[in-house]
FAD-binding domain-containing protein
Amino acid sequence: MKIQCIGAGPAGLVFSILTKIHNHHHDIVIYERNLSDVTTGWGLTLSEPILQQLANIDPIIVEQFRLHILTLNHVDIHIQGKTIRSSGQRLLAISRLKMINILRKRAQDFGIKIHYSSSLEAEDLINPPTDLTIISDGSNSKVRHQLKNKFNTHIHEGKNLYLWLGTSQLFNNNFNFIFEQTETGWFWAHCFKFEENCSTFIVECTYETWIKTGFSHMDEKQTIIFLEKVFHRHLYGHPLKINDICREKAYWRRFVSPISKYWHHDKKVLLGNAAHSTHFSIGSGTKLAIGDAIVLAENLKSCNELNSTYLTHYQHRRESESYNLHIAARNSQSWFENIESFISNDPLQFSISLLLRSGRLSSDELSVILLE
Ligand SMILES: Cc1cc2nc3c(=O)[nH]c(=O)nc-3n(C[C@H](O)[C@H](O)[C@H](O)COP(=O)(O)OP(=O)(O)OC[C@H]3O[C@@H](n4cnc5c(N)ncnc54)[C@H](O)[C@@H]3O)c2cc1C
């Protein structure tokens, strides 16, 4: 089959590589709107099960990831001058750029052509010269938006605002949640080291706090200076940085969750975040994208001519496999959206509630200590 992918993110790349591994006769081309060696964001958390699943089909790619993966041993929660540590939740962290570059190189090794600086739109898909188009252009997918009546898509926008930053402050080898109170409301950061000299630092606040603080009148530089002051006790003089490779992504955003009734229409199929997404506070969006790619590639394994039944199977399987993850993500997102009503509670009680928020961990599995 001739296949084109819109978007060289984890979903489009993993799908293309695995499809080639299953059947090297497929002819695959990827269109990516950004330049090569460019991606949004900073570091990601991953979990061992999804790496294992991927390694079952492509052990080489996972070996290459592992060269750059760091292990986060504990979760540390900093609030009201106290630090509470939860043990037993081992996470893996990797640079998003390194992961994408490994995948792009691997795709090219399989003869998959990636056209950079090539943004596709729905009108480019009228009479495409291909048998199948993979729409893997992320949660704000322009193509899905333009064809939304075909996919019957509903967009859920989060209430809070977030900013995905990086910093040279390396914290420790743990995942850190930092909560800071200001005159205009609470700010918190989800942060962790993901490579030797860099950490991810995602700042979040409620819309009310965002308005009261006056961010709508602050430029990028003023915003960063303000946030460095808010978190100064944890940054030890290290600056906060925007991803200047892709500056337009630096501003405050609301988290977007698309929900589509139909994941495919007339030789076009949604994949990864273009189909569905999970709130960043459970760090599983890439796992979701890779999981979609594995299943779609598997469904097309024995398919030399496109039959929509394969695509329907893919949708049903992924909807059911990701059901619990979506519930956990919604619980977690809503916990952070309602935080102002319980953030002033006792720090230990608050931390336990934070750790149990998604419903994936039970109180019996929790091991929590007050460090200081
Ligand atoms: C703040 C934040 C933190 C996160 N942290 C984590 C984490 O710790 N762990 C985790 O697993 N996940 C995390 N995620 C989620 C993760 O980044 C995504 O779920 C994952 O990247 C989805 O992969 P994708 O390939 O579907 O989409 P994307 O990674 O968004 O890739 C889409 C690609 O399509 C390209 N594109 C867009 N439009 C077009 C067009 N018209 N034509 C051509 N190309 C186009 C884009 O440039 C991009 O390269 C986080 C997300 C956010 C917002």
Q: What stands out?
A: The radius of gyration is 21 Å. The first strand starts at residue 2 and ends at 6. The chain is about 35% helix and 25% strand.
